[in-house]
Each structure stands twice: as C-alpha cells, then as structure tokens.
Design goal:
The chain is of the alpha+beta class. It has one domain. Helix content is 50%, strand content 14%. It has 7 helices and 8 strands. The strands form 4 sheets. The protein has a two-stranded antiparallel sheet with strand order 1-2.
C-alpha cells in the first residue's frame, strides 16, 4: 500500500520507521549507504591531521611516536561508529587511500637506489613500514567485537533481539 508507514513493534513498544537516525556522531541510514558518513569522518579527520601536520612531518621525532599519534589521535576520529558500517569496495579503497596518504606524511620520501632521486613510497613499502593492522582490519575487528558484545546481551534487550530476529519479506517477526 502506497504511503503506509511500517512501524517496528517489540513487545508493547512501537518504534517509528525513519529514513535516518543520528546517534552520537554517526548517522544510520535505512538504505545501507555510508558514503556520506565516511566522507564526514574523513573531513573531520583532515582537520585533525592538519592540526598535527607539523608534528607528523617533523624529522626530529621518532617514527614510532608519529605512529602512536596517528593511532591514538587521528584514527579514532575516522573510525567513530565503524561498527555499523557495511563497506563496499569503493569505500574500502577510499579509506586505504586516506590511510596511505597519512602514512606517506609519517614515513616521508625514499631515495631511489638506481637513479638517486627521491620518490614517494609505494603502498607495499608503506605496509612493510607500518607494522600495525591497516584501517580495514581495525574496522573488521571493531565490528566483530561489537557483534560479540551484542550476542552476550540478555535475550530481553532490544539490540540482542534485532540481532536474532527473522525477516520474511517486508514483515519482521520477533522470537519471544
């Protein structure tokens, strides 16, 4: 039926179906599209990176300290709410490109042995130098940790019930 609202009912509670829902910094959208969410996170992170740019590019600091700054100050801004993300290959590539750009700023250029000229580091070289898990592994780890947290919840909790619900077409049934 055109124009009919499909509210979600759990026991005696009814929840209005909405197109998007904002929780903390994360906006959940009903169409499994997180492009704007990632774009927003990367823009916020660009501001953060710019504020610590002088520190990350400083040749007087140890690379290990720069990596700690990246992992503790910069990454949490990008990964805020990543537990709810369903990434496509396009978003994965965008996140990897972003991470490689930041890592190139940390590890700087390298002298080529053959020509003697300075060149940017290749992605494989960055992966070898950055021994920590890449951004995609961190997202996967966060999602698994969150799923485990929800799976250990009591059966009466709404979040747990959403995890174990059965759907048939447009109809949703709840196990009680």
């Amino acid at each position: 039926m055109a124009g009919r609202r499909h509210d979600i009912k759990i026991d005696n509670s009814s929840f209005e179906r909405v197109g998007q829902f904002r929780y903390l910094r994360t906006t959940l959208i009903n169409q499994n599209c997180i492009q704007e969410e990632i774009k927003s996170g990367l823009q916020s992170d660009n501001v953060c990176c710019h504020s610590v740019q002088n520190v990350l590019c400083c040749c007087l600091l140890y690379k290990n300290l720069k990596i700690k700054i990246y992992r503790t100050v910069i990454l949490p801004i990008v990964l805020c709410g990543c537990e709810t993300w369903s990434l496509t290959l396009r978003e994965e590539l965008r996140l990897r490109v972003y991470e490689n750009r930041v890592l190139r700023g940390i590890f700087v250029a390298k002298g080529d042995e053959v020509t003697g000229e300075w060149r940017k580091l290749h992605n494989e070289e960055l992966n070898d130098l950055y021994c920590s898990p890449n951004i995609l592994r961190l997202i996967t780890s966060s999602r698994i940790r969150w799923a485990g947290h929800v799976a250990r919840m009591e059966e009466r909790r709404s979040v747990y019930r959403v995890l174990v619900m059965e759907t048939r077409g447009k109809e949703t049934t709840w196990e009680t």
